Write the structure tokens for this entry.
Amino acid sequence: MTAVDEELGRLGAAVRDALPELSSEQAAEQRARLLSSGDEQATDSRGALGRWSGIAIAAAVLVGLVVAGVAALSRPRLETLVASTPWSPDASQVVGAIAKLDHEEPAEPEAPRSPSSPRPEAVVLESGRIDVEQGMARKIVAGPYVVTSGPDSGFELTWDAEAETLTLEVDRGEVSVAGASSHHVVVAGNTVRSTAHEFVVVHTSTKKRAVDSAGVKVSAPAWVRAAKRGEYRDALARAKAGRVLESLGTLGREELKLLADATRLGGGAASSESVLLELRRRFPRSKDAKRAAFYLGRFSEGAGRSEDAVRWYREYLKDAAKGSFAAQARGRIVKVLSRNGTAREAELAALEYLKHHPKGAYAPLALRLAKSSTGAP
Amino acid sequence: MTPRGARSSSADEVEVGNVRRLRVAESVLELEGPALRAALYDHYATDVNRVVRSLLGPDPDHDDLVQQIFSIAIRKVEEVRDRAALRQWMVTISANAVRTELRRRWRWRWLRPSDDVDERASDGVDHEARSLLVRFYAVVSRLPVDDRTAFVFRHVEGWSLREIADACACSIPTVKRRIARGNARFVKLAAREPALLERMRAGTTWEVES
């Protein structure tokens, strides 16, 4: 973190403290107002802003009429962000671009989608900036340029219609830019600016791109990229499709860790144990192997295998007595033994927990167990 | 969204939080009509108000905007497919609503006297705090909307890059660029505000002296 970041963070904290809290009266008023408004009335509930909307609508209609008149007299021109070309998506699909539009209502995010949801394919950028996520759009028309990207590409595109300048910053993958008389491919890490007269690389990332022995660019597998983005369900689905789970021996430590996360958090608990066990077998001294012991304890506990759960938690504590999951592991041992162990085992685990975490989350349970075993009231 | 200084201590706690959020979302999504409106408000009013408040500052339109956000949510909630993401969805709706409002104000700024913090909306805030808010939001209002959003979420709310990316529906590299641009522009503009500079460098009067 830089000094500027620290200073701004300090200022931000001061601002946050200075901002008025939501008072109980204000909350009650907001709640009552929401409840008193029917679903059909609710959309127009804004007073002052509603008046602004009225002006905006009127102005937009006027401007639209003028523009339409001018356009009709000149060459056919795309006046909206979403063109009705054969490859144009439904307007509701261009969520990533909508923030740049002059909507009368806020751009609403799409409802969270399943990985199989359809993705937008193309938009027309009249002017302004658009961020394209992986798979979000494959074709963008900006003035005389046609920008095309593969499904794994991510980039930010700015089109200044007045200056007729296109700026493209590519984060991931490759992006093709076709102009009236030229065609370029821009790869990740590069920023280019193009005008009617020139096509200039204004910035090139110093990051080295992975290449294989033949010098061909290599990118991480799709499931790895999805896991790194935290899209675990998608990562797991891709890993399964690629039969990755059947060839764990070929994966490195980092990949095993990502796969363990994807299976654990992406709904593949059944596969997670084998990945975690592989991680511990192949990299027994790594930090990830220690954590794997804790997660194996969690799975065993969830599956009702109490003895295994306690064994794994103790295995974790043996390697990481002061680890970030140590309090959890000790507490869970207390919990598991209080249900399935003998009174003596539970008492010893409780005392051990209280010794290390007298004010921990499991302290009330541990205290109860310790007291009941000594007969204290 | 985790408030500053209240982050979960372990991945396990995060999972517990996720399970709890899913249960809350499921209980909300089973409802309809007034019960749905009440449940949505009861569970997500804090998050929505926080987003509106930090992006806009004390503002006379705050409550109207909150109403609008919930209205949108009520209309669209049936489309939510990933129930565990309902809270994130509410935050994203809120951020989008405020950004749209900020853009609208920017377009019509020539009809508005000022974007300064509203007197009425900062009732109950002491003089020093109000002075800070006025200066801070006067500078922030001169940032482009996207940069302002990322800047405020980062420094005022203390959110992670991932959380900001989710709220703004963009990638982490994009968030980084916006924050960097916001930082640079803010520092440049704040150079004309000695009080802000002093606050940045000397800390806050609310900090406990040790």
Summary: The longest helix of chain B spans residues 33-56. The mean pLDDT of chain B is 78.
